[in-house]
TrEMBL record:
UniProt signal peptide: none
UniProt GO BP: methylation
Keywords per UniProt: Metal-binding, Methyltransferase, S-adenosyl-L-methionine, Transferase
Keyword Methyltransferase: yes
Protein name as it appears in the record: Caffeoyl-CoA O-methyltransferase
Family, as annotated: Belongs to the class I-like SAM-binding methyltransferase superfamily. Cation-dependent O-methyltransferase family.
Organism: Canavalia gladiata (Sword bean)
GO molecular function: metal ion binding; O-methyltransferase activity; S-adenosylmethionine-dependent methyltransferase activity
Pfam families xrefs: Methyltransf_3
Keyword Methyltransferase: yes
Highest rank taxon of the organism: Eukaryota
Protein function: Methylates caffeoyl-CoA to feruloyl-CoA and 5-hydroxyferuloyl-CoA to sinapoyl-CoA. Plays a role in the synthesis of feruloylated polysaccharides. Involved in the reinforcement of the plant cell wall. Also involved in the responding to wounding or pathogen challenge by the increased formation of cell wall-bound ferulic acid polymers.
């Protein structure tokens, strides 16, 4: 007997209703369950404020979701990281998560081409009492990395590096941060499942920016998978995060 479209919809798991969803999980309900049960009750009051402020911003699609912030925080604490770096700050949700997780004498070098975004979150970061850990640099990140590499003392000096900026530069970032992170340290590349588009057929109706940068994400994923200097683990948290532990 032929199955009607309605019957078919009823038997299929509920998919995401919003295109700009913050998780790749197949069901909104399951993601909401994780947020309600394990993430929101544990969120720092200032993280909550920063998240809610950012939700009203027109470019809020760029923000790190709170379950991913929780993952970053857990990793930083497990590693006893002290010296961190972030490329791509926006209003600062991942930065605040990192700064809260670092010890009081911890440091995070944070870079973004747009200081206006950072300034939106800064009063909340200050209120959280962690602004003293942050060294914010406005401008493109690549020249800052090149400058750091000129001083041998900076090589292998970072415990934790989170890369969440222009996807077409990720391989350029990798070439540099691999020498700045210590052996045993961690680099996290964000958005490596790129809205699920890494498996999209050629004729899939993708948003312009997703289509434009998809090739760069695919290239990065291939590169990381064969890079013998690191161990990797690609997690379907947020929009996909690939953790790279430097081994040589
Ligand atoms: N990690 C942020 C958070 O938790 O909300 C989200 C970062 S957002 C996805 C990407 C950021 O990268 C934007 O704020 C953008 O201004 C910044 N960006 C883009 N190109 C950059 C570059 N070449 N150097 C530094 N930052 C850049
Ligand atoms: Ca991101």
């Amino acid at each position: 007997m032929a199955v009607t479209k309605e019957e078919q919809q009823q038997t299929e798991p509920a998919g995401h209703k919003e295109l700009a969803h913050k998780s790749l999980l197949q069901s909104d309900a399951l993601y909401q369950y994780i947020l309600d049960t394990s993430v929101h009750p544990r969120e720092h009051e200032c993280q909550k404020q920063l998240r809610e402020m950012t939700e009203k911003h027109p470019r809020n699609i760029m923000a790190t979701p709170p379950d991913e912030g929780q993952l970053l925080s857990m990793l930083i604490k497990l590693m006893n990281a002290k010296n961190a770096m972030e490329i791509g700050v926006y209003t600062g949700y991942s930065l605040l998560s990192t700064a809260l997780a670092l010890p009081s004498d911890g440091k995070i070098l944070a870079m973004d081409i747009n200081r206006e975004y950072y300034d939106l979150g800064l009063p909340i970061i200050e209120k959280a009492g962690v602004a003293h850990k942050i060294d914010f640099r406005e401008g493109p990140a690549l020249p800052v990395l090149d400058d750091l590499l000129k001083d041998e003392n900076n090589k292998g000096s970072f415990d934790f590096i989170f890369v969440d900026a222009d996807k077409d530069n990720y391989l350029n970032y990798h070439k540099r941060v691999i020498d700045l992170v210590r052996i045993g340290g961690l680099i996290g590349y964000d958005n490596t499942l790129w809205n699920g588009s890494v498996v999209a057929p050629p004729d899939a109706p993708l948003a312009g920016y997703i289509r434009r940068l998809r090739g760069h994400v695919l290239e990065l994923n291939k590169y990381l998978a064969q890079d013998s200097r690191i161990e990797i683990c690609q997690l379907p948290v947020g929009d996909g995060i690939t953790l790279c532990r430097r081994i040589i």
